[in-house]
Design brief:
The structure is a homohexamer.
Chain A lengths: L13 E6 L6 H11 L4 E6 L14 H14 L7 E5 L6 H11 L5 E3 L3 H9 L3 E3 L11 H10 L9 H9 L2 H11 L1
Parallel strand pairs in A: 1-2, 1-4, 2-3, 4-5
Helix pairs in contact in A: 2-6
């Protein structure tokens, strides 16, 4: 395994890190850094890409791509080693890893802490790496969305540019609207 | 409009360049360079992303992403100003631009020479920029796929790493197989 | 804005009133009358059109179209100023208003009291008109379906022909069956 | 069978007339008049509703609804006896009639000259009525679209308001654009 | 009606028995035997075939086919009188029976205890046979999946080969994993 | 490899034979016999299962299942070693083999003469067996459908019960109708 190697080649070793990133937070940032110490390039697969404007998935795939790129920039992570790829749901768990194979560059290892996701990659023949847990009590998107609705301090759980972007698109207002329309 | 500005900010001006990129060729490369002289960031929307292993669409979306990244590297184009985003078909032309809005970062201008595509963006309220024609007799993916099947000199129409990658995944063999299975 | 103008022309001003209408009740009737005082023609967009025979959506789109036409007749509303259009779900909120644009005549204003729906139309550049609330404690389809299941006086919340039609298709029996099969 | 009966009741007898109506022409108008002499109400099912901006299907479902309503007005046909219902494709011929049953009011007879469509309704247990042929050499949508592209006299095959509407939305320009982008 | 007639002919009388079979248990086995005393051939329609690796639907359609064939073998039921057919959901209840008609051999009677399913077949013109209840307190897939998670005696509710197969594919481990990932 | 072993066990070795079977002919029958000499059980995957009533795919999946079962009976092939499984298209070649894995019992080898299909199975890690060619000039479904339309001797290319069944459902009449409606 080669570290810190930015240039894409025919034998670039890639990891894939799937998530919904509603929104991407500092815990995700830690996982990305951890993963980039172990692979040449990292595919960030942005799941449930078709959905937005719901309480579970308030942000569009495009907005999540922007947030992730802003976070990479905040954290000084080299974007040239990363792919940000939206992945619409297919609702067939058994086929899902193979569907990822079609939509993304060839990858060699999956990075996930979700036991089902890990099993699906493992069943498909992939190595799975479990990143360390980065303060999962705070760094959870569900919790962050609740803080946004209730007026808590959600900003400190995101990197500064991501927080600023969510304010810019009035993400808090959107979430509260969704709560009323529920 | 600000040129050569790599850092993403809240007022980054973006263009979108849709295509199927089966495969991406030097003509695409010229359009990308031309566009990056006119916008801060460029979204390359890789269409018909769900399809592969057909004569019209031999390569997966993931393979096309890799080819595009290799071409950017060959041409010295700054990847940090580019998004490579696979877009599955939705088969509703009237809605297609709005569907792109959901899957990609906010964009301000469309780059295309296809008159229908230009009209769809224009109908949706977007500025359209028509890039110059870069030797369209040669730089056409349909023509390149025919050269691959017939044993012509397809490599000189691609940048070196893309040609090497297609050899690596045996793209020519795949196309000839598809011709037999048709 | 021209009132009471039945004839369709090139500059007919249209409103769109989206709902599920499971079933259409007197409150819907009031909104329709209110809207037709403000636009030339009204598009009634019957959402979740693909679904029927569930507790949330017991009636088919076709049955809901008939109920709406019966209600218009009961209330003396001019059907020639109304479109009754079934709209299957697409499960992409961000694109939904544009999808309505493809399936319905061009409209200029949205009529809704749902804050999320209002926001989606507003984001898409449309004027939104909020109709007054017509006794929302009673005139709610969810409440009416519960009355139907529990044997309450659901008929008085509907216009007479709609109530008669629901009896004709044995709507109450269907709902109770769905409850058992749940 | 009751003729000329506008008011919807529980035993209204309905016909269904499926087509793509790209665009609706005088031949369609004759069929509609012929059918309304034989049923109380007529459902006009506008097929392939999801598609537009292609050479085969240039107009959106919403535009076709407007054209049909304009034609009814031109021909003095009572709109209150007609339903204009967009029907997206499902690509399962065997199920298609049952899908129509879900999206439209209950119907009793199908009106069509297409032998396959007639068979599908007949297999599903419906009576089929074959309308007379109204100058099929001229009154064909495919022929009319060709006249539009080639600059022929397409207007005389449509009723005046439909022709005017197509000019208003620049339908001829759209078709020629589609030809270029093909 | 002819009993015990294994050979398929043009007037074979068939029943259809729909279910999800997550997993197939002895109660299903009893229903199958009961039905085969009343029809020549039985279609076992395995619903929600697209889904697997969820708490409600842990097993793939293929795994459920294997389990059903193993159970038939355990119970000495003649497989040559049975069809095991996976049926993906279509999410349109009104059309569902017609969709079954497309995917399966022609059938004449439905076997079900679910009142909604019975109604849907009845609305589509089919005879419905209600099998007796075989100890529904125990023989329920939901209950069996709970026993699997909690370590109860789930095996005695299945036939021996099905229990052995679930162990072979580590079905209990899969369910517990799904519970953790929920 | 064990021959002539009818009983399903945990280590049953299975082959998969994909096709559209429009209609199944004697050539298919030869392949099935050839395959059953090499595997314990054979999965016959009936592709494009959603389509019927078109010139390319005149018969429903259910009709094709019946024809295949009739042919097995005509040829004295043991049905208890065969699975007849309808497979709707997913339009993603790259994922197709994995989708088959979800819908069918676990298989170990693919039986096909189609070079693309062989490659897809091979890419997915499966052994591929190429059956001998059984008079491909005659035993081709496309040719048989043409004979049916033109009044040629199509019956001799099918086994007797399949020919009789096609007459029973008036398959020739259906094909000619489709030709007219084309």
């Amino acid at each position: 395994m080669s570290k810190n190697k930015a240039l894409i080649t025919l034998d670039t070793r890639r990891g894939i890190f799937p998530g919904r990133f509603q929104p991407p937070h500092k815990g995700h940032g830690e996982v990305i850094k951890w993963a980039l110490n172990r692979v040449d390039e990292l595919i960030i697969a942005i799941g449930t890409a078709q959905e937005s404007h719901t309480l579970q998935n308030p942000f569009t795939a495009g907005e999540r791509i922007v947030m992730l790129k802003l976070m990479l920039s905040d954290l000084g992570i080299d974007y040239s080693r990363v792919y940000l790829i939206p992945v619409p749901d297919i609702f067939m768990n058994k086929v899902w890893v193979r569907y990822l194979e079609a939509l993304t560059p060839k990858f060699h290892v999956a990075i996930t802490r979700n036991p089902l996701v890990a099993q699906l990659f493992s069943d498909a023949g992939y190595e799975v790496m479990f990143p360390p847990s980065y303060n999962r009590d705070l760094y959870r998107s569900t919790y962050i969305r609740r803080l946004m609705i209730e007026g808590g301090n959600w900003k400190e759980l995101l990197t500064p540019s991501v927080a600023k972007y969510i304010e810019y698109i009035n993400g808090v207002g959107r979430l509260r609207l969704l709560l009323k329309g529920d």
